[in-house]
């Protein structure tokens, strides 16, 4: 899947959310603002439910929060670069500063898994990660991740 089809520039931001809960709320608000059919609260609850099963912090300062919603028909992505890393219960116990969130239709399990896998692979590229961390604004962040 072409990343530009699920990640809009408006869903890419540099922020200082301060906590895991606040960054999940920010993800929910950004996605809901761009997709009126989505409820910010429903997105938040979906992300939180997934986090309760185990942290989506995959290490190296990266988290890939994700959730499924029955009321949507296309995936929605959000990319956040935290100005200050936040505690996220990652597998390496390190704070997180890059988050790629994915909200998918409940019935698209395989697409969900392949998109998550592709994003994890892209974020494991040290050069991409370095460029994301050096990005000074949303436009640069979006350009790096969609290149």
From TrEMBL:
Pfam families tied to this protein: PTS_EIIA_2 (PF00359)
Superkingdom field: Bacteria
Alphabetical list of InterPro entries matching this protein: PTrfase/Anion_transptr, PTS_EIIA_type-2_dom, PTS_Nitro_regul, PTS_SugarTrans_NitroReg
Gene3D superfamilies in the record: Mannitol-specific EII, Chain A (3.40.930.10)
Coiled-coil residue windows: none
Residues of the PTS EIIA type-2 domain: 1-147
SUPFAM superfamilies: Phoshotransferase/anion transport protein (SSF55804)
UniProt xrefs under NCBIfam families: nitro_reg_IIA
PANTHER family: NITROGEN REGULATORY PROTEIN (PTHR47738:SF1), PTS SYSTEM FRUCTOSE-LIKE EIIA COMPONENT-RELATED (PTHR47738)
Protein name: PTS IIA-like nitrogen regulatory protein PtsN
Gene: ptsN
